[in-house]
Write the structure tokens for this entry.
Amino acid sequence: MPDPRDVRVPIGPQHPALKEPESFLITLRGEKITSVNIRMGYNHRGIEKACEERTYIQDLYLIERVCGICSHAHSTCFVQAVEEIAGLEIPARAKYIRTLIAELERVHSHLLWLGVAGHEIGFDTLLMYTWRDREVVMDLLASITGNRVNYGINTIGGVRRDLDASQIEETLKAMDILEERTKYYVGIAQEEITLKKRLSGVGKLSYEDALRFGAVGPTGRASGVARDVRRDDPYAAYAEINFNVITDNHCDVYGRTVVRLKELLEAFSIIRQLLKKFPDGPIVVKAPRKIPAGETVSRYEAPRGEDLHYVRANGTEKPERVKVRAPTLANVQAVSHMLEDGYLADMPIVVAAIDPCFSCTDRMSLVSNLDNHRTDVLPWEVLRRRGIEHYKKQGVDFSVLNKKLANVLGK
Amino acid sequence: MGKLTHIVNWARIKSPWVLHFNTGACNACDIEIIAALTPRYDLERFGVQLKGTPRHADILLCSGPVTRQVECRLKMIYEQMPEPKFVVAVGTCACSGGVFDGCYNVKSGINAAIPVSAYIPGCPASPKAIIDGVVKLLQSLEAEEEKKEK
């Protein structure tokens, strides 16, 4: 029986604070949020199923369009899995080019986030500044890959385009400009009192909760969880590069801002190291059209956190199964926890702070009423319960794992 | 009467307010729409402003193929917009379904759900293409206005 003092506010799927169609049903008491129900699935297109009907090369371009902001993340993650099954060793130069694009993408994504975060707290000047500076990296991506977004640089067995000396020089020059600008933003984050006060203490996520909800990427690292696939399970050229995993102990939106700004500076240093060591040689090896049977999981540190692709091949030119677990799915569970006990006015920035990407996340929709073919949205709780029951039937009991985690945290 | 309509139409063409709705896009077109509104491309110099509600909007910028779940919401948003209203399909997916054409949860293209006035192809449509498309739409409205006056 709901309390008569509670007010339920639906936000979305179309709402000025949201950039993508998703919906939040928020229960309020006064100005305080008591509970949040996240409803997703508006962006579900059916990519995983479509992958099974297309060849590996076609899938590569389809997978790239899982998300336009971290498109290189998805395509690299997928292509790594396919190469592993096929037993292909890609040339060193291709690895470096992939890593270079990955870091340029991180720069563009983090600058984009900074602008969006500025917009959500009413600091539109920051939006205009960062998006102006972001064009520098967009020009670079356009010059290296041929497209501003959805680069299409990967192919099975390597990359499709090479860099020449003038592009390397151009990239180094751009890094100097961007580093100067980023230092200016770091200055703003450290000194601008309004920004600090607006973001501090908002959207709290403690270290324990970050572990419990399995937060990944900058969201987890801002709560002190030092996890980074680039260091823990190096792929592409990361094993040959020195960099720090940035963590922060603020555990709030301010911490997430600091982590992303520092990661920008790290990305500039990674790009400089890459360009210094750039190996010569071919950029692609010949890949078979039919991939031998096998299955694998591939991991990738996208700008938003760990991206995970599962691919199963059956010896034909089409995959048997492709599964995408985008970083936002891992983080979105923490969001409802962050929102609870906060103010309604903080909702846009708290949601924006995980840098959500719902087009990455929406992997299913449910047709509950077969008569009129209406698709329905499943509330998060129902979905969670279904998942737990499904795995219990298969003999996997997560409550045991949760208890183990609680014990570890207790110590 | 004639003069007043003239002024109203002039105001409409000089300050088209847009609403952006993602109908299942991959975000690529969406970030390019925002890029078109920020300093490098500055769509605002044509009087274009991004608005938060369909009630304030003259033009609906749609990106992405229409997913089944979003379809009825898109129609609802379209119905809420005041007349005269125009829809611009941004990106190949919005024009025809693009790479997602044939996916089980996707209706191909915006015109499967609501009438479209302008199509801007591209994957994603670059900010330059978006500006070009919006300006062409405004020009066509202006030409139509002049025709009516004659």
Remarks:
- The interface with chain B takes residues 13-16, 19-21, 41-47, 49-50, 61-62, 65-69, 71, 112, 115, 127-128, 131-132, 134-135, 138, 148-150, 357, 359, 365, 373, 375, 377 of chain A (CB under 8 Å).
- The first strand of chain A starts at residue 7 and ends at 11.
- Strands of chain A lie at 7-11, 23-29, 32-39, 154-155, 158-159, 294-302, 305-313, 319-325, 366-369, 374-376.
